[in-house]
Design brief:
The protein folds into 2 domains: 2-114, Double Stranded RNA Binding Domain; 140-245, no CATH class. The chain has 5 helices and 7 strands; from the N terminus they run E-E-E-H-E-E-E-H-E-H-H-H. It has helices at 28-38, 86-105, 112-174, 182-212, 235-245; strands at residues 2-5, 15-16, 19-20, 45-51, 55-62, 76-79, 107-110. The strands form 3 sheets. The chain has a 3-stranded antiparallel beta sheet, covered by helices on one side. Strands 1-7 form a two-stranded parallel sheet. A hairpin with a 2-residue loop joins strand 2 and strand 3 (19-20). Helix 4 packs antiparallel against helix 5 (235-245). Residues 220-250 are annotated as: Disordered. Residues 229-244 have a biased composition (Basic and acidic residues).
């Protein structure tokens, strides 16, 4: 597609720094005439039709290529929409001719602002693509944060439940009004042991999840594991100590 370069005034504002800018507006008819002159074609011809109720329609006739241009060649004819004045109808006819030359003959009317606009369009496309990419990343991070928050809430809930269970069992032990037999004490200790093991399992699972998400590393925190053994004593040893120390009430 060929570009027909037509200089024009800066349409971006009324001032540039401290210098007052005077906007020089070029009509569509002026642009069309300059375009055809640049292409080495005769200027387009306008036929204005005065309609009823002071409305106007303009027909524009022009040669679209040099190959078709000679004295007896038929000219392309286009009509404007119905307008309220002559100038508006002529400008609209000229705009249709410019559009026709672009779509049918591959001749694009441009000025130095055109290239700036194209650069801005390309920058906008690149920025839109980058924003879309970042939006996908943000959505993925948001999902990850929601998962981490859910896992953390579940972990806190399990810690809270285990803590409450241990406190309840300890309260039973410490209550002087409670009559505790060896079997009940063994059962209570086993329940405390189960709560601690469950808490350890939850801690391990949560740590693994956070490590997979890049939020936590076992290398930074020393690993602690509760296996139910204290000073090489097994759970049965502990129960035996309780049996040895327990003296039934008379």
């Amino acid at each position: 597609m060929d570009a027909v370069f037509i200089p024009s005034a800066n349409p971006l504002g009324l001032s540039c720094g401290s210098i007052l800018m005077e906007l020089v507006e070029l009509s569509s008819t002026s642009l069309a005439e300059a375009m055809f002159e640049k292409l080495g074609l005769p200027k387009p011809v306008y036929f204005v039709h005065h309609l009823s109720q002071d409305r106007f329609r303009t027909e524009i006739q022009f040669h679209r290529t040099k190959a078709r241009y000679h004295a007896s060649a038929r000219r392309t004819k286009l009509s404007s929409r119905i307008c309220q004045n002559v100038v508006a109808s002529m400008n609209h006819a000229a705009e249709k001719a410019i559009e026709y030359m672009q779509n049918k003959e591959g001749k694009v009317l441009v000025d130095y602002n055109y290239y700036q606009l194209e650069q801005m369009k390309m920058a906008h496309i690149r920025l839109s693509a980058r924003l879309l990419e970042q939006s996908d990343e943000i959505n993925q991070h948001s999902k990850t944060i929601k998962q981490i928050t859910k896992e953390a809430c579940n972990y806190v809930k399990q810690v809270h439940n285990a803590s409450n269970r241990i406190q309840d069992l300890a309260a039973v032990f410490l209550d002087p009004a409670t009559s505790m037999c060896v079997s009940n004490m063994k059962q209570a200790i086993m329940e405390i042991h189960s709560s601690i093991v469950a808490l350890q399992s939850s801690t391990t699972m949560t740590s693994q999840f956070l490590e997979e998400k890049g939020m936590y590393s076992d290398d930074e925190v020393p690993e602690w594991s509760y296996s139910g053994h204290l000073d090489e004593d097994s759970a049965d040893d502990i129960h035996q100590h309780i049996d040895d120390d327990y003296v039934p009430s008379p």
